[in-house]
From TrEMBL, chains A, B:
GO terms for biological process: asparaginyl-tRNA aminoacylation. InterPro entries: Aa-tRNA-synt_II, aa-tRNA-synth_II, aa-tRNA-synth_II/BPL/LPL, Asn-tRNA-ligase, Asp/Asn-tRNA-synth_IIb, NA-bd_OB-fold, NA-bd_OB_tRNA. CDD domains: AsxRS_core (cd00776), EcAsnRS_like_N (cd04318). The keyword Protein biosynthesis applies. Keywords: Aminoacyl-tRNA synthetase, ATP-binding, Ligase, Nucleotide-binding, Protein biosynthesis. It comes from Alosa alosa. One of its GO terms (molecular function) is nucleic acid binding. This is asparagine--tRNA ligase. The keyword Ligase applies. Belongs to the class-II aminoacyl-tRNA synthetase family. Residues 164-478 form the Aminoacyl-transfer RNA synthetases class-II family profile domain. It holds the Pfam family tRNA_anti-codon.
Length: 488, 488
């Protein structure tokens, strides 16, 4: 973004803005002749002796006899750049958290901790920071619960700054995986008029204003009641009638009154839909490949940031991640899962009879049972699954072609199914539920060139929790929304 | 996604599923030995004589004396694959819109229109399509207004399928631009408790259910009233205190009771925030580079799809796009813009005095005046801009460091400003508006290490309208939401 030609035309000036280097006092430059670099680029620069300008926030200040040592971070990397200056440049405003603008010479560092350091010619404090009032303290590793109280400032901590870089890279890795495999990205809508499976726990919308009832106002705007989406699946299925593979990656909503470590009112979902599927294995292959490819990408491209989590947040978690990546995921049927639970010596709070839904305690047990390798649980009881799940037409135990992916620490990471593409079966099930009219548009997808298809949804925050070992979902999203909390 | 090893192990079988090629009747294969290919891959395949399997939807059927000719499309490309079969394989279910599964030999096509064609061994109709009831008719180019009535089926038309491929590629191009330039992607929240500039036109949220007033229920869930975001800017500004550059790309909402060709209730915005800015030019450079880099990427990677628009939807539009790409964008000040408008012979509906906001008619005139080159209009009257815009502290005409980018056909594509980073000025302005308390968190960003920063927002749908020449914004989004309409 910034021109490097500034560097090539270094002309000595005698006007204002004249500085002398802490080392090479003879040379004089004006500020414009300094190349603007991010800390990341400065740290990896080979251009020793070059004149550069960096900007960022002070992470530490140490004043010695002759020299002043600062560590400056700008969020482009976890690492800070060491700035060495003459003590003449010291200033009482040079405090932890203050924003500074430094021009100087990039020099080889005598320390083993970094390759380069910046010998400052000028240090300008652009934004002061009162260290008493600033909630974060120098050289302190604050607990996640503490920094969570400051949603507008927590990106200034090393941990949350690392998290945001990882989240950005993981987003990009997931998008690349889909693009490289021929998936078209579809922006499925946030506002929807279908109440998605009649699942309850929906947020309803209306134009702001007061005095009228929700129905009056809602009907006024869209002419029908509208909700925030709980899944883009049905809209992706529309696209399954025209493309080989599609995906969406966006916010999803649940008005669940939960304060759990695994639930948010607004969270991100990766959802994909694959046309021309042969069996559930086609969908499982995409889930496993996506998980592994994205995780390997993140481990490679955010090595330092990930290490921070695996060292200070979830010590020893890296081993578990490596095991997940190196092993083929297990596949067991729901019926086998029920057998495993019933054979176990553990006492469960919830029932484990065939036909009961698996609870978090069951999911966690099953993953442990499988040696902490992620495990696909397939073919759930037909009656547990929504109308769109494909009927396996088996008996006496009637199942649907649905699968969940369970992972260590988190439990359910993905849910998937083949979708019922057979018009007569789908029509019967919708009729039984009294939904035939409401889902006439969905039935039409099966009337006009229906193809076998299936898909899955993966909770993006749970994915981050799983690979980083973060216990609370509120710590892996920039701004957490949950019951009784919507800060900023 | 699909194994190519199937192709390497071609073993003749004598069991069920035995077919003979229309050309080379001697060879016999079972279906499993056919390599599954998308139409796109089949069309570009060099493996003539190989056994492949394709799946897709019939775009045309033509039966001649001995042979049957089909065109099959699967959405992986605009082009369809020609399938040639013996007339024995004809079937009354082989209609326009039906889904088929074809196995056969890939052969060189005698036609100039395509390199390869598929000589079918078997054709299976997997999903019938009643051509009378299907709203789209064979070989007909339906008007946009017509296909817009079928949000669940319009992706089955060539035009809308092309649009969705372009939209996906443009999304990816924009994300690549930011990633390559060191921007961190931030998922700014959809649900927010701040009413963003007090701009009105907000959607308010509450858990679904009836009987209570909106305030009772809303307060019950988040403890404060909550809205759908109208911009991620303030949340991005949080991140400007920790990163050199950030961006967000997601849905944004306005409860505007408008049926215009340029407005939607739910639309996508690309928003970026750049720290350590020197002037408005830093932000303008990013806008211009983003526009040009993304557009060039789309023109290169979706050449066929874009050509469809520039041929059938907006004839001659390509020339206009090439002009936009080849020329440096103009920069004029708001004051100059007002002079231009006042010197013009055109009669405007809205006033053109200094201090009045520019209306669409003014914006369109200015772009024409600049020879249909995009034009930046800078330094708007201070009183027209929200509290966060940086005060230019000029007089007598008091302006703010804000800029809009106007483009042909669309008018305003981007809005940008430097943000007021000076605590005292910001505090005064918020106090005057009585917002000091509500925005205390925002003031704190300036209390703790404030840096000069600025950013912009670009309407993604308007961007697509601009480069494709699409007149109505409802035709460039998968599912359009606007007043009185929220289908599906």
């Amino acid at each position: 973004m910034f021109s490097s030609s500034l560097l090539r035309n270094v002309i000595p000036v005698s006007s204002e803005g004249v500085f002398s280097c802490v080392k090479c006092r003879s040379r004089q430059y004006c500020q414009k002749q300094f190349k603007k670099l991010t800390i990341r680029d400065a740290l990896s620069s080979k251009a020793l002796g070059s004149n550069v300008r960096i900007q960022g926030w002070v992470r530490s200040v140490r004043s010695q006899k002759e020299h002043l040592f600062l560590h400056v971070n700008d969020g482009s990397s976890l690492q800070a750049l060491q700035v060495v200056a003459s003590n003449d440049l010291n200033d009482s405003d040079l405090t932890f958290g203050s924003a500074i603008d430094v021009t100087g010479c990039l020099e080889k560092s005598p320390s083993k901790k970094q390759n380069v350091e910046l010998h400052a010619k000028q240090i300008k404090v652009t934004g002061k920071c009162d260290p008493i009032k600033f909630p974060f303290k120098i050289k302190e590793r604050h607990p996640m619960e503490y920094i969570r109280q400051y949603p507008h400032l927590r990106c200034r901590t090393n941990t949350f700054s690392a998290l945001l870089r990882i989240r950005s890279e993981a987003t990009s890795a997931i998008q690349s995986y889909f693009k490289d495999n021929g998936f078209i990205q579809i922006h499925t809508p946030v506002i929807t008029s279908n109440d998605c499976e009649g699942a309850g726990e929906l947020f309803q919308l209306e134009p702001a204003g007061s005095g009228k009832t929700q129905d009056e106002r809602s009907q006024h705007f869209f002419s029908v009641p509208t909700y925030l989406t709980v899944s883009g699946q049905l809209h992706l299925e529309v696209m399954s009638g025209a493309f080989p593979a599609v995906y969406t990656f966006g916010p999803t909503f649940r008005a669940e009154n939960s304060q759990s470590r695994r639930h948010l009112a607004e969270f991100y979902m990766v959802e994909a839909e694959i046309s021309f599927t042969e069996s559930l294995e086609d969908v499982m292959a995409v889930m496993e490949n996506l998980f592994k490819a994205s995780t390997e990408h993140v481990l490679t491209h955010c090595a330092e940031d990930v290490e921070l989590f695996h060292k200070f947040v979830a010590s020893g978690h890296r081993g578990q991640v490596d095991v997940m990546l190196s092993r083929k995921f297990y596949v067991i049927s729901y019926t086998e899962a029920i057998d495993i639970l019933n054979r176990s010596s553990q006492t469960f709070t919830f029932p484990t009879e065939w036909g009961c839904d698996l609870q978090t305690e069951h999911e966690k047990y099953l993953v442990k049972h499988c040696g902490n390798i992620p495990v696909f649980v397939t073919d759930y009881p037909y009656d547990l699954k929504p109308f769109y799940a494909r009927d396996n037409q088996d008996h006496p135990r009637h199942t649907a072609a649905a699968v969940d992916l369970l992972v260590p620490g988190v439990g359910e990471l993905c849910g998937a199914s083949l979708r019922e593409e057979r018009l007569d079966l789908l029509q019967n099930r919708l009729a039984q539920a009294g939904l035939e009219e409401e889902y006439e548009w969905y039935l039409q997808l099966r009337r006009f060139g229906s193809v076998p298809h299936g898909g899955f949804g993966m909770g993006f925050e749970r994915y981050l929790q799983c690979i980083l070992g973060v216990d609370n979902i509120k710590d892996v999203i920039p701004f957490a929304r949950f019951s009784h909390s919507c800060l900023l």
